[in-house]
Amino acid sequence: MRAYTEPWWVQLPEGFSTPEFDTEIWTPRKPLVIVPSRLIDSSAPVYGYGTPGPTDNDLLSQHDGVPMGEHITVHGRVTDSWGRPVRDMLVEIWQANAAGKYVHDHDPTPKPHDPHFTGAGRTLTNAHGEYTFKTIKPGAYPWWRDPEAWRAQHIHFGLTGRGLTERYVTQMQFPGDPLLSRDPVVSTIPDAKARERLVAELDWEAAIPGITVGYRFDIVLGGVHATPAEH
Ligand SMILES: [Fe+2]
Description:
Distance between the termini: 43 Å
Largest sheet: 5 strands, mixed
Number of domains: 1
Structural class: mainly beta
Order of helices and strands: HEEEEEEEEHEEE
Helix content: under 10%
Bound molecules: fe (ii) ion
Shape: globular
CATH class: Mainly Beta
Radius of gyration: 23 Å
CATH architecture: Sandwich
């Protein structure tokens, strides 16, 4: 057995003195490269600090024209790990347009922008922890890291409580989407039941007859039934 007096991680390779090891090998010899931040590096759009307006949760009416695509109503209830509704929670969503294109310039997919759709909205939960959005069903898009993989249709959710440390980020998927099995993000969740908790349910009670299809997406912020979150 090898005998030594110091843990292995403080033993230096032969020929290295401590000053050389610390200063010449581990210290950067060139100036640090500052990587410019881009919108795509952010985990969410920047909405500002103002109180959500009355139409901020209606992504169908943010421009002069009507967005392309299937118009939908998305609603749900936000609860904590004890099943209690979470009121006054800021719920932000962001998503691709009906063609599967995000509004920012760093989206590399060769698809068209929709001049009548930005893809960002926000609202506050009411006293029962409920939220509602009107928007369009987003298109799927190819995953830039792997041409064989596709992101299934999804809406990003960011939920913020009274402090930024309480932020909860997740994604809503659509029921029956055949691309769910090829989605590289959803596939990272090993528990099949947890993956199912990301899938909204069709909800005709929430539909606006002749205008929108309704979906319900409840969000649980912790506990054994928690909605899977991004970290
Ligand atoms: Fe996305």
